[in-house]
């Protein structure tokens, strides 16, 4: 039993955005890079499904954000496979959960966290909520829901979320070095305890704008680089064009990150 899915994250459709006085996000390239990702999925990879890990937009205002979020989702729907969506922090600065659910075509969902089964595996989507410059949380209610969901899961489980549940070493991260409170989930130890208790096979996130792997208690925690990250120090820039192709079996997780900063991770299940 093998399932293949692809990951793309932090597409940031929207106005130009600088950080520290330098051009860090190549937002102008986002639509073209998203279309190139879709083409590669359809022509070369043909995954079972595609996961959009969030931050589809560079927030500006309600009307602009709603239009750009819709444009991003519509572009990704060009993939000839199911599209699975995760909410990012930029997506919810001006938009409401109901706006995202409408764009996903899933207005019936009670919230932005949910789970589903495909190909003998169980998949969980968590909603990590960020208060700007304060903290990132999932909340007690979502942790209770997660515990019940994992206990009832039939088959190996994989988790998707926007922020990280690992205790990442942030040295060298141009966005978050010295700021774990706005990139790592506050309740991450409680989450990891549940993941370990229920034998979760892998956890994937975006947000940190780099490729990163932590293996904790045998579980790989994988962060995927932003599609539009500028790998140069400033303009005119060189986009990461990053995305990942993941192959999972009950015994093994293989992650191949494509783009300008390629990486390959393989974690075999102990025992």
Automatic annotation (TrEMBL):
**One Pfam match:** Metallophos
Please report the stretch or stretches of sequence annotated as the Calcineurin-like phosphoesterase domain. Answer: 5-210
Protein known as? Phosphoesterase
Species of origin reads: Chondromyces crocatus
Please list the GO terms describing molecular function: hydrolase activity
